[in-house]
């Protein structure tokens, strides 16, 4: 994937500040530090979105993100932490290579204002139950594999 900036970094053709390296996953400092300590966790194998990862790869990425979160807590002592991952243009994905953002947070830092118009009202129980049933049926049909 010559056009993929993360693939170029992994191939050694572009610079990065590496935090952690393993056989399948690399963690590096986010180039744009929205908050100090912003780390990206990426698979070595090119996978555009979460949907393109197998379950083991996704689990391994989360294990590495957990290690990074603990290191950030030990180093920066943040007030909180966000894990952020976007898929496709509608989800806000900017680089077409799966990556998990690990953001140490400070009170009042203004990052990720998830509900700019305020928190949504709770959905009707019937709507939630119907969607839960549909998802359970999909999982039973093997959508998780």
Would you give an account of this structure?
A 5-stranded antiparallel sheet has the order 1-2-3-5-4, covered by helices on one side. By secondary structure, it is an alpha+beta fold. It contains 3 helices and 5 strands. It has helices at residues 5-10, 55-76, 125-140, and strands spanning 18-21, 25-29, 39-43, 80-84, 100-105.
Tell me how many strands there are.
Answer: 5
Shape: globular
| Mean of all residue-level pLDDT scores | 92
- In this structure, how is the largest beta sheet organized? 5 strands, antiparallel
How many individual helices?
A: 3
Strand order, biggest sheet? 1-2-3-5-4
Radius of gyration: 17 Å
Instruction: Report strand %.
Output: 15-25%
What is the CA–CA distance across the termini?
25 Å
- In terms of quaternary structure, the protein is single chain
Catalogue the unreliable spans: none
- Residue share in helix: 25-40%
Helix-strand string: HEEEHEEH
The SS-based structural class is alpha+beta
């Amino acid at each position: 994937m010559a056009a993929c900036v993360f693939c170029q970094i992994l191939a050694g053709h572009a610079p990065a500040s590496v935090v952690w390296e393993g056989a399948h996953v690399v963690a590096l400092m986010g180039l744009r530090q929205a908050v100090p300590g912003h780390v990206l966790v990426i698979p070595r194998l090119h996978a555009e979105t979460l949907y393109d990862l197998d379950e083991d790869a996704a689990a391994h990425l989360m294990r590495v993100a957990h290690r990074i979160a603990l290191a950030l807590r030990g180093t920066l002592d943040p007030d909180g932490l966000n894990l952020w991952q976007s898929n496709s243009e509608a989800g806000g994905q900017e680089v077409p290579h799966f990556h998990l953002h690990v953001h140490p947070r400070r009170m009042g830092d203004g990052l990720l204002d998830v509900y700019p118009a305020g928190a949504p009202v709770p959905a009707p129980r019937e709507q939630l139950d119907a969607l839960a049933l549909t998802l359970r049926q999909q999982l039973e049909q093997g959508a998780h594999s």
